[in-house]
Structure formats: C-alpha cells, structure tokens
Amino acid sequence: MSENRLAVISIIVEDRAESPKINTLLSEYGEYIAGRMGVPYKNKGVSVICVVIDAPMEVLNTLTGKIGMLKGVTAKTLTSKK
Predict the structure, then answer these.
(1) Residue 49 CB coordination number (10 Å)
(2) The dihedral of CA 61, 62, 67, 70: what is its sign?
(3) Looking at the predicted structure, is the pLDDT value of residue 2 above 90?
(4) Among the residues of the chain, which ranges form H helices?
(5) Residue 70 pLDDT > 80, yes or no?
(6) What is the pLDDT of residue 38?
(7) Helix, strand, coil in percent for the chain, rounding step 5
(8) Residues 6+ apart with CB under 8 A from 4
(9) Which whole-number Å values give the CA distances from 79 to 9, 45, 72, in the listed order?
(10) Residues 3-55: pLDDT tens digits?
(11) In terms of C-beta density within 10 A (0-12 exposed, 13-18 middle, 19 or more buried), how is residue 46 classed?
C-alpha cells in the first residue's frame, strides 16, 4: 500500500437517516482516524462532520466515495502535501 497522507474529510449530512451508515463506515476505517467533530447546524437543517484521517490515498478515496454515495450526503477530502 502507498504512503499515508494526512487529510480532512468534510461531510455535510442533509438526510439524518443516513447517520447510522456514516457511523458504520467511520468505524470500519477507525484505525486511520485521528479525530472527528460533528456540528448540527439547525438553521439549515443539516449536520457537518469533519474527520481527521491519516491513511493511504486508496483508503481516503474509498471512504470518501462510500460516504458520498449515501442519499443526502456530500463528502470531500482535503489532503496535505506531505
């Protein structure tokens, strides 16, 4: 596997019914996760989750893709250059 990269996965959850699926996916990749923060934003009726992760690019892409395919969920990754 390739070298690990430090990254932040930003997740916007518009359909809270998908939250258990998100939590299951994050648990599956828990060995790579350094921390996470979730903020319910009631004014817009969404939740925002930021996940700090140290993993190979293949893992980052796979996890972000799986989360982003959920109904009412958007996920994007920002990676460090190191």
Answers:
(1) 21
(2) positive
(3) no
(4) 19-28, 57-68
(5) yes
(6) 96
(7) 35, 45, 20
(8) 32, 54, 55, 56
(9) 9, 28, 24
(10) 999 999 999 999 999 999 999 999 999 999 999 999 999 999 999 999 999 99
(11) middle
